[in-house]
Design brief:
- The protein is about 30% helix and about 45% strand.
- It is an alpha+beta fold.
- The chain has a domain of about 120 residues.
- A hairpin with a 2-residue loop joins β2 and β3.
Length: about 270
């Protein structure tokens, strides 16, 4: 009786072991399929990004909104600027069309003041660009984040990241894959986060990112970018940057929103 009872228990344990092994095989097979599918998506994204020609000379109408916010992220002071942006490689030129400042319900025209400030800033940028051209190094002063800074799906960037497929969704009426990119080594010049990739063209349509390592004195830095295919290029349509930083007793909360339109290629 005891022997038969013991034998029955042994059979039961063997059955459980086999069942678990089958489950492990299925899970392993599923993981491999998921990995293959992700690699397939990534390969198509890499090809798509690589297919774009150099896009260094262009012009666009830009509306920029700079918001200094309080602790609840409510606007304290807002500056809205309308400008014609011209980009030629590392050199940027801005024709300020209009600038207004809104504070405590009062609107003030600050076009001339802002135009003067931007001319001084652009002069420094051009000087840095010339120095970097002569030395072959990157400019010490950088005016803005570029797609090269934010998109990891390029030959020189993809090895710095690990990728994960989070799921699928719909963005602006188009089916997308949602892919997470994480920097292998945390640096403040590398961005990581979620990428919304068109299932039809494999274009990145939206980026929701943060630095893999925040710069000094920055507690929060979030970037949201909307991109759009235009002719044979990928152009920036909207951007939103949220920054919270501080040093000693001074804290800054800043929102920067930009809308791009009327793109033109310049010779």
């Amino acid at each position: 009786m005891n022997r038969r009872h013991q034998t029955g228990i042994d059979y039961f344990l063997v059955f459980i072991l086999i069942f678990n092994l089958i489950g492990l095989v299925k899970t392993s097979g599923q993981n491999q399929q998921d990995s293959d599918f992700l690699n397939h998506i990534l390969e198509n994204i890499f090809k798509r990004i690589a297919s774009y020609p150099d896009f260094e000379k262009w012009q666009a109408l830009v509306v920029s909104t700079y918001i200094n916010a309080d602790k609840s992220w409510k606007p304290e002071k807002t500056r809205r600027v309308k400008k014609l942006l011209t980009v030629n490689g590392q050199v940027r030129d801005e024709e300020i069309l209009e600038a207004v400042e809104i504070e405590k319900g009062q609107t003030k025209d600050v076009t001339e003041e802002y135009r003067r400030q931007r001319l001084e800033r652009l002069k420094k940028l051009r000087e840095e660009a010339e120095k970097s051209k002569e030395s072959g190094e990157k400019p010490a002063i950088k005016n803005q984040l570029t797609k090269d800074d934010l998109i990891p799906f390029t030959e020189n960037k993809k090895g710095l990241y690990t990728f994960r497929l989070l799921g699928e969704g719909v963005l602006r009426g188009e089916k997308v894959y949602v892919i997470e990119a994480k920097a292998k080594v945390k640096k403040d010049n590398l961005f990581e986060g979620r990428y919304y990739i068109s299932q039809r063209t494999y274009d990145p349509l939206r980026l929701v990112l943060q630095p893999s390592k925040n710069p000094a004195f920055v507690r929060e830095f979030q970037v949201e970018i909307d991109l759009e295919p235009w002719k044979d290029k990928l152009v920036l349509k909207k951007s939103r940057i949220k920054v919270f930083g501080g040093f000693l007793f001074k804290s800054v909360r800043l929102l920067i929103e930009e809308d791009y339109s009327d793109f033109k290629i310049i010779a």
